[in-house]
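Quick note —
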Amino acid sequence: MTIDDIMRVAPVIPVLVLDGDGDWEGLARTFVDNGLKVLEVTLRTPGALAAIRRMAAVDGAIVGAGTVLNPAQLDAALEAGSRFIVAPGLTDSLAQAAIAAAVPFLPGVATAGDIMRGLDHGLDHFKFFPAETSGGLPALKALAGPFGRVRFCPTGGIRADNAGEWLAHPSVMCVGGSWLLKSGETDFTAVGDRARAAAALRRTGANEAGPS
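Predicted structure written out below.
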């Protein structure tokens, strides 16, 4: 799968901070069964790689690693079974490593210069991060003007009550959401309810047709 393929699977990618010995297979099944197959596990905790290994074994789950900061973390994430890589920013060394590994890569950008550096590497799909504190939807609209073929996954400050506004913009293919799993939550019934609601969010315009 390409990063474009992955971003088209569902309108929301759960952004998960996992640690300890939770029922990560059960969590992955809950998301998959309720329409969210693409899952980003952030490398912010000591247990993240173990969680990726366990979730990646769940049928139908497309599990990737987030908060990847350098090529060493990229290698560790791939060894754990990650099928895509998400970074909070864009560095030449990480971009080169991801391209060399032929892994779908979604680096973070917040400025026109970030996007231009990504384009120099042949990248045109980006995580707009941190979305709300980088100017929100008005900032993304301004960036989309000169970069009409670029597609985004805004993350950071996206909530259930504003995700639809972001998804209505033609340059937005999906959003990253941390609201789907609350800290310490072990009863996945409510998680399934949130996942179903997120999977039902609509994408419009170029999101479905692809870049023009």
